[in-house]
Write a structure and sequence with these properties.
The protein is an alpha+beta fold and about 425 residues long. It folds into three domains: about 1-115, Trigger factor ribosome-binding domain (Alpha-Beta Plaits); about 150-245, Chitinase A, domain 3 (Roll), CATH 3.10.50.40; about 265-430, Orthogonal Bundle (Trigger factor, domain 2). Helices cover about 45% and strands about 20% of the residues. The protein contains twelve helices and 13 strands. The protein has helices at about 20-35, 50-60, 65-85, 135-150, 250-260, 265-295, 305-325, 330-335, 340-370, 375-390, 395-400, 405-425, and strands at about 1-10, 10-20, 90-95, 105-110, 115, 125, 150-155, 165-175, 175-190, 210-220, 230-245, 300, 430. The strands form four sheets. Strands 7, 8, 9, 10 and 11 form a five-stranded antiparallel sheet that branches. The chain is extended, with a radius of gyration of 32 Å. The relative contact order is 0.10.
Length: about 425
């Protein structure tokens, strides 16, 4: 095989490939094995037609397309390896010659991974931020723990307060007419959650059970249902009941019920230590993210549009899976929100471009600084995963290799982590 790569523009070029006639002859053999299983010839069982009989009846040319389908992808992959190019999209193939007894010859228009012109990535000046445990943050964490163990009580004699969960019926009107999705019965709503239009939840504060109240709001201009954007609406709301979280006092008895500690002081010390460890991790992530973002900003990349489109595809697929977990098909979501697929894709575009640029810059820095994970790194990480999952290391490796993109994704994450740590270690933290 001969393979020649000629760059014709930024990130695009022509890959010309030629294979000897013997290779196309072997592809014809493979094509016959496949095609003969599907043809019927009187006097022969299916799959048992002799080659000469087949070619006499149908012609050798009937095997050409099957032979091309067999040989071309294999030849293309081999040519990629030989030339060392990194395609980022499917090629556009021009088949020049595919005939028995002659060389197999084709050209492919290929978009390749762009060159990254790294700017400054060492000695970056990063403004530090404080991530420390304060009395206020400790109290907030303790309150969060208390809230997670709060008891839910029905308010028999009282009115709605911030943080309560209410059960309501509501019916909305726009220009005196009901609208789709504007009514519900026995709807559970947490006051202050921001689930409803701005101002709706606030107007329920002070309501008593079985009270009816008119609530007036205006849909935001950017509301996802275009027919309602910027429209004033009036809701008739009936309150059925109020549920309120009642937090326990932080005393020794409460501490003993929810933990292995005996006193409030011991519990506070442990919570403070855990909070400190969490903030240390957040501090590291902040520095790493800041360094990576600055390294990306300092670099130059002529990014092929197709790479952004592929990343948008990934984001849309992830979004569709999230909807599916809620038993909402993507097409139903688009119809309900009045959003087109083009509009949905445009919402992911900026983030997709930034992710692609970041990945390319990290890859380039890792290559320049030899930061790709070593075999020792990989073994240690697999052992960590195995210990965490309480399984044998060999089994963990087997599962990672079986799942796509299991092992490959793990190695990418390790490379990205090593690169981010390298950038922080070689930065100036002010």
């Amino acid at each position: 095989m001969t393979a020649k790569w000629e760059k014709t523009g930024n990130n695009v070029g022509v890959l010309e490939v030629e294979l000897p006639s013997e290779d196309f002859g072997s592809a014809l053999d493979e094509a016959f094995k496949s095609v003969v299983k599907r043809v019927n010839v009187p006097g022969f069982r299916k799959g048992k037609v002799p080659r000469k009989v087949f070619e006499s009846k149908f012609g050798v040319e009937s095997l050409y397309q099957e032979a091309v389908d067999y040989l071309l992808p294999r030849a293309y992959d081999a040519a990629i390896r030989e030339t060392g190019i990194e395609p980022v999209d499917r090629p556009s193939v021009d088949l020049l010659q595919a005939e028995r007894g002659k060389a197999f010859h084709f050209k492919a228009q290929v978009t390749v991974k762009p060159e990254v012109k790294l700017g400054q990535y060492k000695g970056l000046e990063i403004e530090d931020k404080k991530f420390e445990v304060t009395d206020e943050s400790l109290e907030e964490e303790l309150d969060r723990i208390r809230l997670s163990h709060a008891q839910i009580e029905v308010v028999e004699d009282g009115t709605v307060e911030q943080g309560d969960t209410v059960s309501i019926d509501f019916e909305g009107m726009v220009n005196g007419e009901p609208f789709e999705g504007g009514e519900a019965e026995n709807f559970e709503l947490e006051i202050g959650s921001g689930m409803f239009i701005a101002g709706f939840e606030d107007q329920l504060i002070g309501m008593a059970p079985m009270e009816t109240r008119k609530v007036n709001v205006t849909f935001p201009e950017e509301y996802h249902v275009k027919s309602l954007s910027g429209q004033p609406a009036e809701f008739t709301v009936v309150l059925h009941d109020i549920k309120r979280k009642v937090m326990r006092e932080l005393d020794d008895e409460f501490v003993q019920e929810i933990s292995d500690f005996q006193t409030v002081e011991e519990f506070k010390a442990d919570v403070s230590k855990s909070l400190e460890q969490r903030l240390e991790a957040e501090h590291r992530r902040y520095l790493e993210d800041a360094c990576v973002a600055l390294a990306v900003a300092n670099s130059e990349i002529d990014l092929p549009r197709v790479m952004i489109e592929h990343e948008i595809d990934v984001q849309v697929d992830n979004f569709a899976r999230q909807l599916q977990y809620q038993q909402i098909p993507l097409d139903a979501y688009l119809e309900f929100t009045g959003t087109t697929m083009e509009e949905l894709r445009s919402q992911f575009e900026a983030g997709a471009e930034e992710r692609v640029r970041t990945e390319l810059v990290i890859e380039a820095i890792a290559k320049a600084e030899n930061l790709n994970p070593t075999e020792e790194d990989i073994t240690a990480e697999v052992e960590r995963i195995a210990n965490q999952a309480q399984m044998e290391t060999d089994r963990a490796m087997q599962l990672l290799m079986m799942r796509d993109p299991g092992l490959r994704q793990m190695m990418l994450e390790m490379r990205n982590s090593k690169t981010a740590e390298f950038l922080v270690a070689n930065s100036i933290i002010a």
